[in-house]
Amino acid sequence: MITAALTAAMLLGSCDNEIEMRYPPKFELPELPEIEGIHTYKAPLYWSVYEYCYTREQNGVAAADMDITPSEWDKIIDWVATDLKPHGYDMVCTDGFIPMEAKDASGYMTHYGSMELKSLVEKCKAKGLKVGVYDNPLWIHGSSTTQIEGSNYTFGSLTYSGSDEVTNPKNDDMWFQWAVATHPGAREYIDGFFRHFSELGINYIRMDFLSWYEDGKDRNMGVVGRGYGRAAYARALAYIAESAKKYGVFTSLVMPHMYDDALLEARYGNMVRIVADTAGGGWWHCSAADRGKSYTNWPNCMNMFDGFVYWSHIAGRDKVILDGDFIRLNTFDTDAEKETVISLQLMAGGPVTVSDQYHNIGDNLKFYTNDEMLALNTDRFVGKPLSRNLLDSGNQIWYGEMSNGDYVIGLFNRDDSQRSVSVRFSDLGINGEWQVRDLWKHAEEGAATSVTANLQPHGCKIVRLHR
Hints:
This protein is of the alpha/beta class.
């Protein structure tokens, strides 16, 4: 049995320098604007096309041939509106894989494959849903001759020139044509990007490959581009935050290095990815991949659990939201694992991003639609692990306070065998006796001053303490 009463003094007394949080030295940054009041959102609940596209890619479908037909979109939207929207899932979101095209004079993205974004917004709006878009305000889709509104510059003037100081001058960029944020007109270009999507009725943007922009490096792939430097990256995020706030658009930052203890991402993003891609999903991505290891650049952690623990200190109410990436419940082996992956996201204050599809969701819908658990999301609850050390079993105990004064405690078992876990409320700074309610069993368990659980392999117990 792991008893928090025996270890709490050690865990709660740990200093940051006793925890392996390996950040590179601080970089000198340009003077940047302060963007006040951007951390006011709760984590989103939505459905993503990720699994739809990922599985087709794995089956050999080429990017140029990847698409979602209007009739398939109708089936997806009807299902989300019927089965998920009543529980707070109010958006469908595009992702990569499918071509993103600019087909009007604006030069910004107008189509996701064959689907016009304007039409997708109309389809979703008719069902009470919103649309989120995977795009990056630093990617250039339109013609190089396109005029940047509000400036004397063109899209082409924003791209790399031989005089730009870059991290990897002997390398070309893979896949993307980047807008260099230090070029004249970049601020206006980024502002135009957010204005464009706002006018379409889109207020969620998921922007990817940020590490490739900053220094052109990826821990898994090596050198992948020129890398436009810390100063350009910082300026880009500041411009993005400025315009996103102006137009009321939520920004999701994906694949950032998080240098300097996530100084820039926590300052300028609404939400930030803290783990490698979902890919095949399952327990591997949730907890097992490279368990207990952290790295100095993207991806810092390879599984959700380590990612949430590693970055838990930067999250909280009115702070940046941590994103554990997409959930594919159909790739998990047991009900215990499915409860854990949903609970982990909600205990950490993260989003729940459904990527299962209407034809393979099966009996898994009940895990996504546990309204007692989803109440944490509505409340903007953000819990913390008892220990931030990736090698300490204390990171499997999470706790936090609801806005009404109730507390939520999560006991997790990341191991492959059954385990007993116990924690006294007083060891978490919670005094006195409380009524205990199990949020997965939907059952009152009576008054107590501690909680104990015999957890199945990969299982959890989540309780709410109330008076």
